[in-house]
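hey so u asked for the seq, here:
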Amino acid sequence: MHNLNHNENNDQKQTNIRQLFDSILSGQNIKSGTVKNGVKWFKSSCPLPGHEDKNPSFNFNYSGGWTCFTCNKKGDAVHLAKELNIDPKPYYSFTTSHTGLTKLPRFDQRPILKVSHRKEYKYLEDMTLFRKTMDRELYNKNNLALYYNQKFGQKGALMILEEYLIGTAEDGATIFWYADINHNLCLSKNMQYDKTGHRNGYITTNYYGIPEENRKKPLYGEWLTRKNKNSICIHEAEKTASAMSMYDLSKCHLATGGLSYLDSNALEVYKDRELIFYPDVDAHDKWSKNIAEIISNPEQIIEVQDTSVLWKMNNLEVPPKGDCADFFFDHTEIRIDPEWKSFVDGFYLVSTFK
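ran it, structure tokens below
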């Protein structure tokens, strides 16, 4: 501990405050702002947890004052430290009446601050299990694979299963592997299907020991968008996205895996792409509201389709629940029939994950 008099305490406080801002804004683009009441203000992206600040809205000065016009929060260095789960004591006033502090650690002995909300994504590195689940022989006990074989023929089924990284668990459940645009495996979802291609049993998500704070949750099929530059269609179910890749070749089909995965983090990678959303028949209003809240770029081309139109335009009764794939399964036939083993050797995308 270093013994400081009152003036040195104030100097130390200013040094601590500067270190606070420099630490939490490390790597951010800091722009000079205006001078108000003799104090120089700066602008940068907001560091507050949960705020993805695309347009810098965080204003601060090195005396400790700050405000975010998007979060509608402001305060001094003490408030900021509390927002970031950092010990606020170094930023209190050093008068005895406020804190009673007379001693502070030397600044040059303080470690670099670690901001708790910043994430470092981790991925599945051991490919042994992944390759094992993608063994073609296992498709013979995978009900979804057998259903695709029935609907599209054997070559068509293999094209979908391997392009969309659909594997098979030991108990015959279907495994949907999730990977990001850089071909990093992030997670997998296991689902049981019956012989008619409908879910029948448990659904489990596996992150393979990756801690919650290090998990990345891309849309299902994100890796396909690296090469496929067509408009992106976003469905809810993994099965729907994979099947629609056969019925509509003009689009790149992805899935959220559930409405809760449709958030700004998952969509950030597609900010310059045309997005067409195909919610389930009973989820159109929910999707429309959620999409309006999370997509703020007015120049991005966004469409939210009414899936029920597929039935209406064919003078058919609209089911209470259903998606694009349900309609095409019942009303369109596409088959490619060579034997399973006659398809080209090796997997289309498995070789990418070496």
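Confidence is low (pLDDT under 50) at residues 1-8, 94-118, 340-354. The longest helix spans residues 143-163.
lmk if thats what u needed
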